[in-house]
Design brief:
This protein is an all-beta fold and about 100 residues long. The chain has one domain: GroES chaperonin (10 Kd Chaperonin, Protein Cpn10, Chain O), CATH 2.30.33. Helix content is about 0%, strand content about 35%. Strand 6 and strand 7 form a beta hairpin. It is globular and about 50 Å long. The mean pLDDT is about 85. This is 10 kDa heat shock protein, mitochondrial. Homoheptamer arranged in a ring structure. 2 heptameric Hsp10 rings interact with a Hsp60 tetradecamer in the structure of a back-to-back double heptameric ring to form the symmetrical football complex. Belongs to the GroES chaperonin family. One of its GO terms (molecular function) is protein folding chaperone. Keywords: Chaperone.
Length: about 100
């Protein structure tokens, strides 16, 4: 099963399962932050998506990629008592590169 790092759940089609990164709640200056976590790590991906012309395209992220999420959206999924989120491949804003 290509693109699978999480054994108990395999996203279908262009779905991407992510685990949000821990939020930085206090700045170096000691200011408390309240905000949504927009960074995440990909833990499982579906196999493909359809292009505008109906052609099959591979999902653009892979397991262990660090990605930037939109502020809103995603579907919460609880697996092994941990919160994960499903996003469509096209809804992910970008990925971090080294």
């Amino acid at each position: 099963m290509e693109g699978q790092a999480f054994r108990k759940f395999l996203p279908l089609f262009d779905q991407v399962l992510v685990e949000r990164s821990p939020a930085e709640t206090v700045t170096k200056g000691g200011i408390m932050l309240q905000g949504k976590v927009l960074q995440a790590t990909v833990v499982a991906v579906g196999s493909c998506s359809k292009g505008k012309g109906g052609e099959i395209q591979p999902v653009r992220v892979k397991v262990e990629d660090k990605v930037l999420l939109p502020e809103y959206g995603g579907t919460k999924v609880v697996l092994d008592d941990k919160d994960y989120f499903l996003f469509r491949d096209g809804d992910i804003l970008g990925k971090y590169v080294d």
